[in-house]
Design goal:
Blueprint: H1 12-22, H2 28-40, E1 58-59, E2 65-69, H3 77-80, H4 88-99, E3 120-124, H5 137-153, E4 159-163, H6 164-177, E5 194-196, E6 202-206, H7 211-216, H8 221-235
Parallel strand pairs: 2-3, 2-4, 4-6
Antiparallel strand pairs: 1-3, 5-6
Helix pairs in contact: 1-5, 4-8
Length: 237
């Protein structure tokens, strides 16, 4: 890893974008759901003040690797306000990022836990927790304006790691909006898929580190680690 910049330093464009994301109310269904969850809470987190707003991206603005996930978890990111923080997916992912050299610690519990990412930035196709973890096409379209600006601003990204089919499709849809691809048919989602993209980046696909996938063995730690070892190697070439 060559980048030494940490998540404590945010350029103005990213600070402004994050403020707009956090204030977004474009999707009434998601606003209602995220706020309902934040009020009712889960018994285990009764003493928490839930975030209950759209969750901005997190990581190194000079990152060469972009991780593109699905959406905040209802009692994970929607509670903590940071991607993959405070839920089973994060407990699976952050130790892998740490071992692969992308973070300063293996644990992620809250926004003030000292976690910093190096050479990696995490975002999502949808910024609000959706019912059943299934954002609607219109909701993904509303969020795409933020994703486009985020990727455009992350000038040094060389590798995109898409976690799950929704993240994978979100990246392909961006390239189609830009006119760089006319069809998505040539890009099939499967774990460990590797595509050289027309925008000059490499797209890597992984199963999402959801509790369902990791508990059933569909996604194992060695499988996930290989994705990020490959991403690190590609980022440094």
């Amino acid at each position: 890893m060559t980048s030494q910049r940490t998540t404590r330093d945010l350029p103005l464009w990213l600070s402004q974008l994050n403020c707009e994301v956090i204030a977004c109310t474009l999707c009434p269904r998601l606003v209602k759901y995220r706020e309902k969850i934040a009020r009712e809470k889960r018994r285990a987190y009764r003493d928490w003040e839930y975030w209950g707003k759209p969750v901005p991206g997190f990581g190194d603005p000079d990152a060469r690797v972009l991780v593109l996930g699905l959406a905040p978890g209802a009692h994970g990111s929607n509670r903590t306000g940071r991607p993959f923080t405070g839920d089973a997916s994060g407990k699976f992912m952050y130790p892998v990022l740490y071992e692969a050299g992308f973070s300063n610690q293996p644990n992620a519990t809250d926004r003030n836990d000292g976690l910093q990412l190096k050479n990696l930035y995490i975002t999502a196709a949808a910024r609000c927790a959706p019912p059943g973890n299934k954002p609607l096409p219109k909701e993904l379209a509303n969020c795409s304006r933020y994703l486009d600006r985020e990727i455009e601003g992350l000038k040094k990204v060389k590798v995109v790691v898409a976690l799950g089919r929704v993240g994978f499709e979100a990246y392909l849809n961006r390239l189609r909006r830009l006119g760089l691809i006319l069809s998505k048919k040539s890009y099939v989602f499967r774990h460990a898929a590797h595509y050289e993209m027309p925008d000059g980046k490499v797209l890597l696909a992984s199963y999402h580190p959801s509790n369902q996938n990791t508990q059933t063995g569909k996604l194992t730690r060695p499988m996930f680690m290989r994705i990020f070892k490959e991403a690190a190697k590609l980022a440094d070439t």
